[in-house]
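Can't paste images in this forum, so I'm doing it all in text. The chain is below; anyone willing to post the predicted structure tokens underneath?
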Amino acid sequence: MTKSELIQRLAERNPHLTHRDVERIVSTVFDEITAALARGDRVELRGFGAFSVKHREARTGRNPRTGEQVEVEEKSVPFFKTGKQLRERLNTG
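Text version of the structure:
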């Protein structure tokens, strides 16, 4: 599902809200999650999962095409861990 598909479905299920309002709500939620992760905070949505930031140390990697060694700088990457309810819902027979 893309962001625009999510907005469309939410707008269909909430006819009292305009499409523009739904778009603002979805964008605001995503912006807040992004801002919290940028600050290094953890975002937990009960029953869905938790977003956090993992830090990767600098390392020596390899270029898969040439095989030569490449220095990879340290970086932060987003990480998502599913919640128990989401896992159970996905794994019901």
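Residues 19-38 form the longest helix (20 residues). The chain has one domain: 3-90.
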